Amino acid sequence: MALSAPYTCATAGGLSVVYALLQTRVGLYRLDTGCLFGTKQTDGKADDEKLTALSRAGGNFQEYVPTALLLMLLMETATPVSSKTLAAYGGALAAARVALAVAHSNTYNRNLPNLLPLRIGGFLTTIGLIAGAGVYVGLKGFKALQ
Q1: How confident is the model at residue 2 (pLDDT cuts 50, 70, 90)?
Q2: How do residues 35-68 score in pLDDT, each as one tens digit?
Q3: Domains and CATH numbers, the chain
Q4: Closest Cα partner for 72 from 57, 61, 88?
Q5: Does residue 32 surpass a pLDDT of 90?
Q6: How far apart are CA 80 and CA 26, in angstroms?
Q7: How far does the chain reach from its first CA to its final CA, in angstroms?
Q8: Distance of alpha carbon 14 from alpha carbon 18, whole angstroms
Q9: Which of 7, 40, 66, 106 is the most buried (most CB within 10 A)?
Q10: Contact 116, 106 (CB under 8 A)
Q11: Distance CA 84, CA 107 (A)
């Protein structure tokens, strides 16, 4: 049986693995530190910077990826967008989300170079993809209603 949305399936599958890895890092860190709820250090006095960074990397991922994938699915199944455009959208989305996840996950690490460009690039790319796809899908929908 042929898939009706292979580009979306491939992108969603890959991004799901990335999300699972991000959340696994949070879970393992929680087990290692004994901080099973919240982000306070075990002494309860201050936030654990690493746990906060790891949690935000997964949280930020889950805030944006579902909308981007839904728009990709709509473009693939309900509009005449080309396969090259879908592949570019999926690739750009994956690259942007991985870049942002790396930057968020390592915010606490002072031994790494400045990761702000990854955060900015990942965020702007993601927002651009979502806004562009949203406008495209919306316009196609309004045109079909006429």
Answers
A1: low
A2: 777 766 666 666 778 888 888 899 899 999 999 9
A3: 7-145 (1.20.120.550)
A4: 88
A5: no
A6: 40
A7: 34
A8: 7
A9: 7
A10: no
A11: 34
- Amino acid of residue 125: T
Instruction: Please give the full DSSP string across 36-67, using - where no structure is assigned.
Output: -SSSB-TTSSSB-HHHHHHHHHHHHHHHHHHH
Closest CA to 66 of 16, 122, 22, 7: 16
What is the sign of the dihedral through the CA atoms of 47, 49, 52 and 56?
positive
In this prediction the pTM is 0.88
From start to end of 57-146, where are the E strands?
Answer: none
Please, which pLDDT band fits residue 30 given cuts at 50, 70 and 90?
confident
87 Ramachandran zone, left/alpha/beta (phi>0; psi -120 to 50): alpha
